[in-house]
Amino acid sequence: SSHRINIAIDGPAGAGKSTVARLVANALQYIYVDTGAMYRAVTAIALERGLSSEQEAEIGLLARELAIELLPGDDGQRVLAGGSDITAKLRTHEVNRNVSAVSAIEAVRRRMADLQRRMADSKGVVMDGRDIGTHVLPDAELKVFLTASPRERALRRFKELGDNPGITLDQLEIDIAERDRKDQEREFAPLLQAPDARYLDSTGLSVQEVADRISEWGRAATRTISAGEK
Ligand code: CDP
Ligand code: CDP
């Protein structure tokens, strides 16, 4: 049928949200939107301009002026900020350590949520982040809260870093826990499971198993809506 829904996937760092959201979007022929990449883009540009994360007013202004675009690329999503491709600058340890402070700035969050809602306007979007089901798309037809044990999440991230990780597994686990804590404790739109979200613990599950389960939930939600409209 032609019924398309929006799917919100929230959860802590390393839970598998982006990996799985991309697969679900492919399976359903939906558009994938990585909201974390947008907060990382603001953070990377702020650092590049010599701003520190405490300069909230300056960063708020920056977020409001910055044109952020998400484009599909060969190996994942590309991010343009002010017209230039900054994808390669988004996943540095420096950005990792500052992104939660930047994301806690209310003006930054308001601007990003505006852009994200526009992207989801015509439905058929799989959006992953921290506040999608609770704040950005409270009417999403399917909401998933995806998590895994802290050690497993750190290990997944560590494996991605390859032969020159530039950090120990223990330090990475500490950094991730610190980021999760800041994301959960911030005042405006914190990381939180929506009451109507399905909870999915992916510890010990493969990427494909998780993606299949969410795709199936998505198809079921679509069928329910189509049946209700007959
Ligand atoms: O992939 P990973 O979980 O490491 O991070 P991400 O999804 O790229 O998000 C990076 C950071 O952006 C998070 O730790 C949050 O501080 C922030 N973020 C947010 O506040 N709200 C969102 N919807 C998405 C990300
Ligand atoms: O977006 P988020 O921070 O939640 O996680 P991610 O960027 O998708 O990274 C998760 C990493 O764990 C990727 O390297 C995946 O291949 C791996 N992984 C997973 O996502 N899900 C599993 N069930 C098992 C492993």
Automatic annotation (TrEMBL):
Keyword annotations from UniProtKB, A to Z: ATP-binding, Cytoplasm, Kinase, Nucleotide-binding, Transferase
A matching Pfam family: Cytidylate_kin
The protein's name: Cytidylate kinase
Xref: Gene3D superfamilies: P-loop containing nucleotide triphosphate hydrolases
Annotated source species: Cohnella fermenti
Domain Cytidylate kinase: 7-216
Any one Gene Ontology molecular-function term assigned to this protein's record: CMP kinase activity
Record keyword Nuclease present: no
